[in-house]
Amino acid sequence: MKLYRKIMLLIIAVVFVAIVSFMPFATLTVSSNIQDKVEDNILNIAKTVAKSPFIRTALEEKDPEGEIADYVDDIYNDISEVEFIVVADMNSKRYSHPVKERVGEKFVGNDEIKVIETGEMYISEGKGTLGKSLRVFVPIYNMNETTQIGFISVGTLMESITKAKFEAQGHIIIAAWIGLLTGFFGAVFLTKNIKKSLLGLEPEEISKLYNEKDSMLKGIHEGIVAIDSNYNINMINISALKILGLEKRYKIDTLIGKPILSVFKNSRLPHIVKTGLAEYNFEQVINNTVILTNRVPIKDKKEIIGALATFKDKTQITHLAEEVTGVKLIVEALRANTHEFMNKLHVILGLIHLGEVKKAQSFIMQTVENQELIFTDIIQKIKDSNIAGLLIGKASRAKELGIHFEIDEDCKLKSNEKGKITNHTLVTIIGNLLENAFFAVDKSSLNKKKVYFKILETDEIIQIIIKDTGIGIKESEYNKIFERGYTTKEGSKGVGLELVIKSINILEGDINVKSKVNEGTTFNIILPKGSNEVVL
Question: What strands, in cross-sheet order, belong to the sheet with 122-128?
Fold first, then answer.
């Protein structure tokens, strides 16, 4: 059975049982109240009439004019729920009766004896000339209140009382049916509302979805953080903690319900809740890891009820890119070195054929020393193997092109502790700028073809300077060179300098370009190391 049907049947059953259980008590209470009301009514009327001076005087004088009956008839017009008012003397002779012909006859029922003998007020059920009735007896005294001169009986037929009780019970039954129908329609409305809130899902389906979500959050490699409309964290997975380097500081259970800004001070998720605008593909560096963040609002129809951030760990991709870049550089260096050494081998072979063995030996020794000098110089100054490999490859490339590649003597780069600056970023910036410098120098008409490189690392920054004696850049094109598609190379897509400026902007660095046409270009880049701030 579906959940909404179970709830509906349960509510209807509860309402039905409650109404059925309540009806006997309600009926008994209403019947008792009707009886009490009738008794109070007839007793009050009897007391009032018994105290009437007119009745006392007329009864004491034996009502020679028959005025008591007319007086009582007038009373009937002002009261309700009373069938009869009988005034009688101490001999039970009636002076008033609803049936005129019975005035003057003796009172019937024998339950009046007590009021005659004791002068007490009481209520009794008796059968008179009109039938079985509930009636009250009240003594009537003379004007001096010294002698009882008769009594008054006011009553209502039991048939009328029973009818009133049945009418009240009918009202209760109608009210019960209304209550039952209200409970039924209320149950239908409530169950439909619950079904709508649960998106038509059954408990086992919800349980299945929860387990699937929990497994997904644990198994997914993307970091996920969600907040509600009050900016409190209501979902976060272990991957998020690992990517952010917080798995040792926090546990998932302790973060749920915490304000997002108390954990991640620079989080933009509250901004997403306020604006309702999504943000996609936001790159940042956290704990030496490049991550890509997407932020979207969570909506229930048109109402924003929270926000969700997902972020991918690009470290593995970056490592692969660095590996691929390293292989490419090694291949490029080997190709350039192979071409260079083939030329040298031809020289050595020629000297041997000419019988110049000593000159061949000298040439070999000089070549080895020059090559070792270049390698040793780079490795001593550049401790980062990725950048060192890049420079070695570029040095071989420069020789192949006939370019003097000068690496500054004061170069300094550590192998680690670069803050938020990654090897991938440095490879992207240096590799693209050197390649552009070689191209510019190669196309230059100047005889002096030179490229100068310097990298310097301090505790706060990494500075990169690259100068060339190439063809230069027009001042009007300074702002265009970093746009995608801008290029002066045939077959190039113009993405190199775009990648450079994008990498610098992510690190909040600065780049300064100076150039003169046919004289050369200088790029001066400052990259702040900074700290790995978390901005979800």
Answer: 84-89, 148-157, 131-141, 122-128
